Amino acid sequence: MRLKVEPRRQVSKPLQYATPPLSVLGTVVAAFVLFAIMGYDPLRALYDLFVAPLGNVQGLSELALKASPLVMIGVGLAAGFRANVWNIGAEGQLMMGAIAGGGVALAFYGREGWWILPLMSLAAVAGGMAWAAVPAFLKTRFGVSEILVSLMLTYVAEQFLSYLVLGPWKDPEGMNFPQSRMFSDSALLPVLFDGTRVHAGVLVSLLVVVVAWVVMSRSILGFEIRTVGLAPAAARYAGFSQTRVVWLTLLATGGLAGLAGLFEVAGPIGQLIPKITPGYGFTAIIVAFLGRLHPLGILLAGLVMALSYIGADQAQVDMGLPNAATGLVQAMLLFFLLASDFLVRYRVRLVRPAATSEPAPAQKATA
Prior knowledge:
It comes from Lichenifustis flavocetrariae. Keywords: Cell membrane, Membrane, Transmembrane, Transmembrane helix. This is ABC transporter permease. This protein is mainly α. The protein has one domain: Orthogonal Bundle (ABC transporter involved in vitamin B12 uptake, BtuC). It contains 14 helices and two strands. The chain has a two-stranded antiparallel sheet with strand order 1-2. The longest helix is centred in the last third of the chain and has 28 residues, at 242-269.
């Protein structure tokens, strides 16, 4: 007996949309078993991870704050994934956007003006787009894989950020800590609700979701992106340029990632530090697929993934659960999502090997 994998004749649409909630359910069950094996109370751990953060205003505000960059980056990545453009370096583009926007804030340190924050935003978008333009150029000009280039550039951006906060941009009054000066008030995002850290960037992320939904479902550009991804030959016949789509999707993702990076340093952090996010640029890849590459689905998926960050912090304080539980839960969620997608598109069957017929005695004698 052997296993045979064969594609299904028709992929069920209801099952495709059912796989994200089923993946979340599978993650919860697997986490329950794993926490029990590790010696923790699984019910309490799951409560801290997925329920406790939703029980007060502070938890809900932090949920919106952490979901905002995940949603912004996930929307940009989804557009590229629909066109088969695989940008894996959004984390590096986030850092470069934070560097560019933070550089503007430091250049005008001590000055006040309404124009500083818009200028920082433009610089952050430009920084993220410039970093994404490198894999776009190499792919369209030389056919180099954008996966490898964008991923490797992430580590270059990380080292560049560390160099700046340890060198020329280090706060001279910061007790030798690797950090820049604190941004002035004009360089910080306005807080929407007193007593919380929810800032105007959350509203921008919601606007990005609406604009992306309109563009992808109601515009010629969205149709062009989907056609290039689903049927490249038909796209060429229709006159759609694959090169144009590669540039557009990579630059859009880089710009959104750079803006998300600025919202982190001009929002809850208030300065440049070596570690800006816990890996939002990579987690946004899971968010994009969990949301089925649809802007509204990405909004819901971003809230789920943000909940895993907040819940892990809660469980670490209450139970001493390792901080790596966040990555563990996210990895299990990705595993169940990929496994579910595979089973929706393919059928696995047990096949009995064909019996080999023995030659007749007369045939043996002739031989």
